[in-house]
Amino acid sequence: MTNDAGGFDGAAVVVDVLARRVRQVAHGQTLAIAEFAESGVIRWEVRRGADGVARSWYWGARSWQALSRNGSLSGAALRGAASLGDDGLAICTAPGNSIAMRALRAAGLAPADDAPADADRSLVADVKLREVLTDVLRHDPLTLWYDLLIQHRLGRYLENATISLFPPGAQSGDRNEFTVRCERTDGTGTLFAVVARDQMLAYRLVSKQSAAIPPGTYQVTAELVRPGKVRFTGLPERLRDDPRDWDEIAGTVPDRLQRAQPAHLIIAIESSGAVADVRERVGRAEQLVRCVAGQPDSRVRFSLFCYGPHAVHRTDPEVPVTCLAWGDGGTPVLDKLRLLADQEPAPLGYPPAAQIECLLAEVIARLGAPSGGEDRPVLVTIGARPAFPDRVNPARVVPCREHNWQGEVLRLQRYPGIAFGAIRDRGAGDGYHDTGGSDHVWLHLGDTAFAWLDAVDVRGFAASLGLLPPPAPPMPLPLVPTGGM
């Protein structure tokens, strides 16, 4: 495009030339612009930062009087004020002002009246350069990739990663949709940090916005408002500029998640007594298994036992300790529990005690000798009656002829990391008062966690036994919605 120094170019010419010249500015380069305005010469500079954003600066007008010598415009003073170098651009924005036009010629920046002007060197147009330049910079295409900083879960580790938002060449108004997962934060909110990426995979922070977003998975739309500014919609809270330093934010980004240690949950249910009582015990066991097995990356295997009465009198039933599952996954054990709930309970038998001591002996036999290589055992006993004593006690409860519950408890305590949880029928005793000594077994069975059958916080009970992973640390960055978070 050309212009005649004595004529007027339209605003469209200025916009086109400025847009092209700004696109040519690389990182570290400067486009110098001298505006010959009504009041004098205004110097502008456009520079492109490491983030790929072109920004403008200006210096106040040098008046025509200050650029005159002996009453005439000084070409040397004008060229010094313009400071265009070899690649600068002069724009006369006051073509109706004779002084401005004379100054353009005196500076050697306008051709003779009969020669075409070089649009890459000088332009004449009645425009407001501040407004035109602001609009050009707003619509300047991206020169770098724009990405969103996120985290990606790899097992228990958290890897810093990015989601691509806009490629080089993207312009104001372009949009991109993506899905992210927001997790619990420390109160400062989830941070949406946009970074610019070059071909060498070097990143520069472009913008930081945050909001207190409830945990959940969201379909988000990113809109490029202008270079250096991205608007995010689709979130339940409005993002606002985050004033924190990046180093402060980076210090809160976790690099791993704590996981529950491998465990072997052994559930023992007293299967004798009233139908409602037994079914409630089975129901609590089912809730516990579902809670533990339903955790992401659960590392717990399950075993299931039933125990009941000893035959003390000739007419008493003998219901042996039964192993229904050993070292299984959660689903097979839940199937066994459903079958158990549909069966008729075993007879109550001898009322004062149940064969807990035989149960403990059977668990030890199944576990084998203690070693550091096995999963940590967690024994949860759900029932009502105490164990049989090893001798006739003051309450005249007859002893078990084969096992001593105190000795079996001591043997179990030798297993590294073992935990004991108990869920007991209310009204069956409290495990603390002396009822002949055998009731003390519940103190040991509930050594790590104890609850009454009709008031169990299943999740809290499981957490006390170390069967649930610790709470995830605050997540200041969004996560990709895969990986079971």
How would you explain this protein's 3D organization?
There is one protein chain. α6 (275-293) runs antiparallel to α7. It is built from 11 helices and 21 strands. It is an alpha/beta fold and 485 residues long. The chain has a 6-stranded mixed beta sheet, with helices on both faces. Strands 3-2-1-6-7 form a 5-stranded mixed beta sheet, sandwiched between helices. It has a 5-stranded antiparallel beta sheet with strand order 9-8-11-12-15, with no helix packed on it. The protein folds into 3 domains: 11-138, no CATH class; 145-250, no CATH class; 263-464, 3-Layer(aba) Sandwich (Rossmann fold). Mean pLDDT is 87; it is low at 1-9 and 430-436. It has helices at 11-23, 75-82, 98-106, 129-138, 246-250, 275-293, 330-342, 356-367, 405-412, 441-445, 458-464; strands at 30-36, 40-48, 54-63, 68-69, 72-73, 89-92, 122-124, 145-154, 157-166, 175-182, 190-197, 203-211, 216-226, 229-233, 240-241, 263-270, 300-307, 322-328, 376-383, 419-424, 449-452.
Write the layout of secondary structure elements.
Blueprint: H1 11-23, E1 30-36, E2 40-48, E3 54-63, E4 68-69, E5 72-73, H2 75-82, E6 89-92, H3 98-106, E7 122-124, H4 129-138, E8 145-154, E9 157-166, E10 175-182, E11 190-197, E12 203-211, E13 216-226, E14 229-233, E15 240-241, H5 246-250, E16 263-270, H6 275-293, E17 300-307, E18 322-328, H7 330-342, H8 356-367, E19 376-383, H9 405-412, E20 419-424, H10 441-445, E21 449-452, H11 458-464
Parallel strand pairs: 1-6, 6-7, 16-17, 16-19, 19-20, 20-21
Antiparallel strand pairs: 1-2, 2-3, 4-5, 8-9, 8-11, 10-13, 11-12, 12-15, 13-14, 17-18
Helix pairs in contact: 1-4, 6-7, 6-11, 8-9
